[in-house]
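Try this one yourself first.
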């Protein structure tokens, strides 16, 4: 069994004496900054002027430019979009990254794929929550937490692991469990998980199910409830009790259907294609493609986003969610 760290295993004192710069105030940034502040740490948010800057101010955070925050802090957590990190790091963070400081990431992408090459005289580690930033904040406020991975890439001070664990505790992740990994393992598994299962695999499965039902003449609203809305309720049961816990709550008819149909949908061919995705991630092919797409100003990303947002499941779903005030809409 992997070694797990929980609140009682971690002494956060080592981070209490330091100033933490959270660079970026988006999905992860706002959650880390607010959770750390609520946990009693000294936090400055580094962002450019605009939406995030205004939001951070409204949330009562101390806010500075990326450059100023990086100069002021001992621990610099980069929570900028992966594809923009290299440029901002070189221009605005590196000048303030004096010897003895800590450079931190929530995803190993830029270090693992050699886009960012940190100086030799700083600690480098990652603390990567295994969940969306908005849930990192929401679960923290509810007294719970999202599990996280940590990995030490460079340990100049000799206490990089202690600082990483204290950070993970500060954002609430040690309430759920913190697991040690490497930059390589975190980067490759995170990319695989989001592509094959959590995002790519799931959205494709949901859309396919919705399209098949609508195509066959069933009502789109019903198809939305069946393939998207109810998925959350089923996944909540998996979150609470694993696959067996979910199967305890569903009917025996559904359980039998699960057993006889599941492998016909996700078959050996699907697993072969998952292996293909994994090897493209491992070889760096996926990363090179994503970096190139950004250098070209995201033509495919923008075109696909436009098409996806116009999909019937989105228009139907929006109307149905508007009638459910208890659903926290984005
Ligand atoms: N999203 C998630 O839940 C997860 C993300 N991660 C990792 O966390 C990191 C951050 O991702 P995520 O939270 O999704 O990022 P977001 O896209 O949600 O947030 C990006 C933030 O960066 C700011 N920003 C963008 N460009 C600049 C710039 N040129 N100068 C200053 N600030 C800028 C944005 O500000 P503005 O409003 O001005 O654009 C915004 O505050 C990534 O490494 C990602 O892989 C890891 C686990 C989960
Ligand atoms: C699943 C997507 C994710 O890896 C995450 C929320 O953990 C991301 O990069 O946003
Ligand atoms: Mg992830
Ligand atoms: Mg990810």
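Now uncover the answer:
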């Amino acid at each position: 069994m992997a070694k797990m760290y929980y609140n009682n295993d971690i002494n956060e004192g080592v981070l209490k004496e330091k100033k933490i710069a959270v660079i970026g105030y988006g999905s992860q940034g706002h959650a880390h900054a607010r959770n750390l502040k609520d946990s009693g740490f000294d936090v400055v948010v580094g962002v450019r002027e605009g939406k995030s800057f205004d939001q951070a101010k409204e949330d009562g955070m101390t806010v500075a430019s990326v450059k100023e925050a990086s100069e002021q802090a001992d621990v610099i957590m980069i929570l900028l979009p992966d594809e923009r990190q290299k440029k901002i790091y070189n221009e605005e963070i590196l000048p303030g990254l004096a010897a003895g400081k800590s450079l931190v990431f929530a995803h190993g992408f830029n270090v693992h794929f050699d886009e960012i090459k940190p100086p030799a005289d700083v600690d480098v580690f990652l603390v990567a929550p295994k969940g969306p930033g908005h849930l990192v904040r929401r679960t923290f406020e509810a007294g719970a937490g999202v599990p996280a991975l940590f990995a030490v890439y460079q340990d100049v001070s000799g206490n990089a692991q202690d600082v990483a664990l204290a950070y993970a505790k500060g954002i609430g992740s040690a309430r759920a469990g913190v697991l040690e990994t490497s930059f390589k393992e975190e980067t490759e598994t995170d990319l695989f998980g989001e592509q094959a299962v959590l995002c790519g695999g799931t959205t494709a499965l949901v859309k396919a199910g919705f399209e098949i039902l609508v195509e066959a003449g069933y009502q789109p609203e019903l198809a939305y409830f069946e393939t998207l809305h109810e998925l959350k309720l089923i996944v909540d049961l998996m979150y609470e009790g694993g696959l067996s816990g979910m199967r305890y709550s569903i009917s025996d008819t559904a359980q039998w259907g699960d057993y006889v149909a599941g492998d016909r949908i996700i078959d050996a061919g699907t697993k072969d294609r998952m292996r293909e995705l994994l090897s493209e991630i491992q070889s760096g092919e996926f990363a090179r493609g994503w970096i190139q797409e950004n250098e070209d100003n995201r033509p495919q990303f923008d075109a696909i986003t436009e098409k996806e947002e116009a999909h019937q499941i989105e228009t139907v779903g929006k109307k149905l969610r508007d009638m459910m005030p208890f659903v926290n809409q984005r």
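Discussion: The chain has a mean pLDDT of 98. The chain is about 60% helix and 10% strand.
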